[in-house]
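Pipeline run #58 for the internal structure catalog. This entry was flagged by the ingest filter as a single-chain record with no existing model, so it goes straight to prediction. Upstream metadata was stripped on purpose; only the residue string is passed forward. Reviewer on rotation: M.T. Logging verbosity set to normal.
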Amino acid sequence: GWACVLGSAILLAAALRVRRAPAVVLLGAAFVLTGCGRPDPAIDAAADACRREEAACRQALPAAMQAWLARRTPEDAADFFLSVAERWPALDGEARAMRSYCLEEAGDLEGALADAVRAVERDPSARNLAILGRLHLKRGEPDAAARAFSRSIERDPRDPRTREQRV
């Protein structure tokens, strides 16, 4: 990423100094061909897997989430996870939980809460319940948060993150 930024700055400086610079065009093409400005390969791989089959998509989702987080484009990530939820109903709960997190990162707390509720309805896992509890805390709803965290602990009593947030 930093190489792309540095290369772009050099190309911009060169373009501002020289009117006809074939070297600048060639360097720009080289940056594009080597991956600067293209989506992360993990995102591409996950998108491809999610177009092909449900099982491959399920396996690709955790890596896709990590790649989207690293990329810091939560709105695009939310769109991706919504498309997964719509295409593969069996993955709706997991994809909605991931989308909820992305919407929260983008500042859409209401949308995040709606997706977290849907995620819990489809897949009441400890993780999804903890996400819902955290969102209720952010909204200043401690009773709803406590209920979600209690349900999460019932599902997985050993999860230290859930126990810590419930206290």
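catalog note: The chain is about 80% helix and 0% strand.
catalog note: The CA atoms of residues 96 and 119 lie 5 Å apart.
status: ready for reviewer M.T.
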